[in-house]
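RECORD TYPE: inverse folding
INPUT: structure tokens
STRUCTURE:
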């Protein structure tokens, strides 16, 4: 990944598809060095984004003085769509690396429809034998998931699951953000070797049920789990590379 923003409380890194932002933010009750992964996207014009999203049937409102929008999924999950601070992803970023934003949901069908309504497109996987869910999404080879592609080639995933509810909540489990994930098209073996040469330990495994994919699992600072999955299907065209989506960590 290529660092494109370097400020005291914010750093952004571009992949070939999508970007992540590291923000300094301590949540109540957490240790100073704790890290959190937060699902989010970037858009060009928040007001126009809200107009189109609402017209397609998903709740969204302009916030932060017009600089962002909040999107409310029908499962109760709310995520932020920030106004993009800069343009297309860095040309020096590895074109084989793609950011995957994961939405853990209690209502996969409606979460899939909400992602479609914000402008994401079904993520075609030429080798997966995908099936249409009826909500405009394409099921991945892994059960209980639906994958979408954003305009920059980044990937958004709706995945059946929950996170533990915050202390004091009556619900034990709630919708939320999954772990920090990537897809990699350049071959996992060379990537594994590069990580080892840099002193980063990664565990090789298979994920995905019957149509399994190879993956690498590693731990980031603060114990955050990072998953790099082997990508399949054709690389998306450069014409789609606009600043959207991103995971926000911290």
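DESIGNED SEQUENCE:
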């Amino acid at each position: 990944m290529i660092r494109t923003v370097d400020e005291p409380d914010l750093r952004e890194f571009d992949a070939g598809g999508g970007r992540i932002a590291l923000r300094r933010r301590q949540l109540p009750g957490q240790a100073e060095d704790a890290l959190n992964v937060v699902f989010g996207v970037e858009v060009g014009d928040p007001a126009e984004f809200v107009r189109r999203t609402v017209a397609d049937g998903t709740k969204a409102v302009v916030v932060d003085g017009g600089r962002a929008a909040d999107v409310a999924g029908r499962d109760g999950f709310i995520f932020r769509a920030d106004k993009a601070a800069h343009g297309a992803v860095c040309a020096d970023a590895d074109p084989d690396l793609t950011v995957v934003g994961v939405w853990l949901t209690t209502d996969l069908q409606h979460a899939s429809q909400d992602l479609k309504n914000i402008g994401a497109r079904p993520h075609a996987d030429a080798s997966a034998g995908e099936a249409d869910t009826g909500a405009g999404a394409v099921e991945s080879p892994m059960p209980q998931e639906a994958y979408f592609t954003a305009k920059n080639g980044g990937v958004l995933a709706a995945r059946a699951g929950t996170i533990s509810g915050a202390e004091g909540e009556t619900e034990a489990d709630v919708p939320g953000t999954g772990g920090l994930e990537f897809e990699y098209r350049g071959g996992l073996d060379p990537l594994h070797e590069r990580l080892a040469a840099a002193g980063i330990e990664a565990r090789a495994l298979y994920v995905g049920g019957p149509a399994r994919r190879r993956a690498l699992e590693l731990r980031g600072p603060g114990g955050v789990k990072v998953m790099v999955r082997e990508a399949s299907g054709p690389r998306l065209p450069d014409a789609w590379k606009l600043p959207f989506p991103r995971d926000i960590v911290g």
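NOTES: Residues 126-143, 166-171, 234-250 have pLDDT under 50 and may be disordered.
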